[in-house]
Specification:
Blueprint lengths: L1 H20 L6 H8 L2 E7 L4 H13 L4 E5 L16 H8 L5 H20 L3 E6 L8 H10 L5 E4 L6 E8 L5 E7 L7 E5 H10 L7 H5 L2 H4 L2 E5 L18 H6 L8 H19 L4
Parallel strand pairs: 1-2, 1-3, 4-8
Antiparallel strand pairs: 3-7, 4-7, 5-6, 6-8
Helix pairs in contact: 4-11, 5-7
């Protein structure tokens, strides 16, 4: 009897020891969050060395690592050599011809998305070289991404917010939401995850709209798209010296008002889709 009790006790001890050796189950999402890395990609033209040097100095000041994406100079690419672009489709949707700088912007952002996907990082901040870095950018951007779900991006800077609908507040006390009216303007700084980046590389081709307009059309791209109520970065003094085009350049490529009716119709329909996209967002 005593011998049986001894064997029983030893058997239980062995079982408990084996259980202790079994590693605890960890949610893959939690593991990914713990190991995540956020890279900052800066789109910069070769001729804009002063902008890059300014950002490098800020990166050193705030202990940030930035990766330069050599921007595509749309001015040196012949119209016949533009890939994923159909002039008639662009004119139909915009009522004007494409500016060379717009094509360069579009291609540059796609290159940044491709490099981000190849890096293996979970999230990336993609920015243009006319904004300023700051020490709170990464924690505030991550908090914005963690406050929403799905293949997603959050715009961190806009030129205008009309009809902003708040959806949630982040752990960094920023308000994230969507706008009922647009376009909001600017693709100067946004944070995106891998699933969203892969979707964008597919759904943003061919180029039908300027990149900043196309980026925020979540109802079309299949990417859950949000924006912060306050800009998380400031524009630098270089903003006034745009490399894409000024108002005089846009006016020069506009078609006759009667020939812009297709663009007006598209924008009206798109505005209705934008309104529905913002209204249906759940808090």
């Amino acid at each position: 009897m005593l011998l049986s009790a001894r064997f029983l006790f030893e058997g239980v001890a062995v079982i408990l020891e084996q259980i202790n050796r079994i590693p605890p189950l960890i949610d893959p999402e939690i593991a990914d969050d713990a190991a995540q890395r956020v890279s900052i990609y800066v789109i910069n033209l070769d001729r804009s060395r002063d902008r890059w040097e300014r950002l490098c100095n800020q990166a050193v000041e705030y202990d940030l690592h930035i990766t330069r994406i050599p921007a595509v100079d749309g001015r040196i690419i012949a119209e016949a050599d533009r890939v994923d672009f159909y002039p008639h489709s662009f004119i139909y949707h915009n009522g004007r011809k494409l500016l060379p700088g717009e094509y360069g912007c579009y291609r540059s952002h796609l290159i940044a998305l491709e490099q981000f996907i190849a890096s293996g990082d979970k999230m990336a901040i993609i920015m243009e070289d006319d904004v300023e870095l700051n020490d709170k950018l990464i924690p505030r951007a991550i908090a914005a991404m963690e406050s929403v779900q799905g293949p997603r991006l959050v715009k961190l800077v806009n030129h205008r917010l009309v009809g902003f609908k708040p959806i949630c507040e982040t752990s960094e006390n920023d308000v994230v939401g969507r706008c009922m009216h647009g376009p909001q303007g600017s693709a100067a700084c946004y944070i995106v995850n891998r699933k969203a980046a892969k979707k964008l590389l597919t759904t943003l081709k061919p180029m039908l709209l300027p990149y900043d307009v196309a980026l925020e059309r979540g109802w079309s791209t299949g990417v859950e798209t949000f924006t912060t109520f306050e800009n998380l970065v400031d524009f630098s003094p270089h903003r006034a010296d745009t490399t894409i085009g000024k108002r005089v350049h846009y006016r020069a490529v506009k078609r006759h008002p009667m020939l812009r009716l297709t663009a007006h119709w598209f924008r009206t329909c798109d505005q209705l889709r934008r309104w529905h996209y913002a209204v249906k967002a759940k808090q």
